[in-house]
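User: If you would, consider this record:
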Amino acid sequence: MKDATPTNWKKTITRVAVSAVAIAALAAVVTYETAKPMSARASVAAPAPAAAALDDNSVAPLLSLDHAMETLAARVTPAIVNVAVTSKTKADTAEQQMPDDMQQFFGPGFGQFFGPRGRPQPQIEHGIGSGVIISPDGYIVTNNHVIDGAVDIRVTMSNRKTMKATLVGADPLTDLAVLKVDGGSLPSIPWGDSTALHPGQTVLAFGNPLGFRFTVTRGIVSALNRPNPFSDNARKPGEFIQTDAAINPGNSGGPLVDARGEVVGINTFLVSSSGAFSGMGFAIPTQIVKPTADTLIRDGKVTHGYMGIGISDVTPENEKFFNVSDATGAVVTQVEADSPAAKAGLKVGDVITKLDGQKVSDAGELQVEVGQKGPGTTIKLEVIRDGKNTTIPVTLEAMGSRDKEGNEVGENEHDKIHWGLGLADMTPDLRQQLQAPGFVHGAVIEQVQPGSSADNAGLQRGDVIVQVDRHDVQSAADVQRALGSVPKGKDALILVWSNGGNTFRVLHAPEGS
């Protein structure tokens, strides 16, 4: 038998020494107690019996509530899954070699482009989240940010069975995704109606917080219709459910359920100064989740309708300036040039009060309703302009179908998901940062989605695409248009300038495209 290491010996000795001291102390106590006179021992009174427990009748309401919560948790938990994701990411060891101003321009992680050995090796990362089975044949709803960039997805059920999951589709705008596992007669839970919720109503949050699988927490609906807090994209819909049912990292993608065991929301983020739960968790309401999931199951993607306006709430403070009698509706704060709204004649200061005959209570509600309608749909807006009512029809376009100059391009979000590229135009500042010669024209790669076609082709942030399928490109819009026109299931050939030279790369058509 091999000798134990000195460290192990020390640990063993320490444990034994502590045990020996404890035994010696115990022996001393026993000896002392034994040596005491019989009279002294007899004078010690026996402890009084503990007070009796409360009888069931006196706490019947609490016991009834406990029983109801136990029944609810037992019904829902089998439909909860732990989502384990494997994704590829780039090393960032060279980031600190970059000048501070360059890091600020490109953002964290861009420094990997300037590594001393050129291209770093991709790294494997693992993450966990939650999901909920919504149908007996194995469809699962989770958050997009849980599976974003995944190259392998596996789900574990409460009975410890693990299955490989495939991605049916994802929608970054709403942060929702649908997975599929093989199986029949799987436990599932039904959809509830989030529009019928009220503050104070009991809700339960299910998921896998901080790696503790199949956890349930109880709370109430703290507030409804919370606005979009994300500064990265004003087009992301709000209308979030706020709850004090504990939501922590790992809960993302799990359901928020009502007392009937119906899904009323998908837990997605928390607001906290520490990064841990502080009483404010947020869930995407089913009024957004269900239609998005249905569309992803049917089409594999979601194309959102787009008007081309900025909007905000009508408030008691500003209602008089727009000649409205109550603080409801959405006031137009911006109209993009040549957008559907501009073509229809909408103007800044218009107050939208109804959409297709249905009252609009606030800007968030209007944003959600328009985003759920498909491109080509003509909607009718009832508008108050200078105190007068008018009806304006607007024909929606696809969100992301225009660049910042208003030119029509391929659907940006779709292109990013399809090929895994985020692009920017070459600017004088970018040219200087990249030290690109004046003859280099094209689109600068700003983002590469891990595990995507672009990632597999070895593309990185800072590479410049100068040709697509042997045709020169001058801008990000050119590249988006060219890649968007590649036939489904076909590969694309791109010419890339990087590290002072040009190389051809092949973007392989993603699986399922």
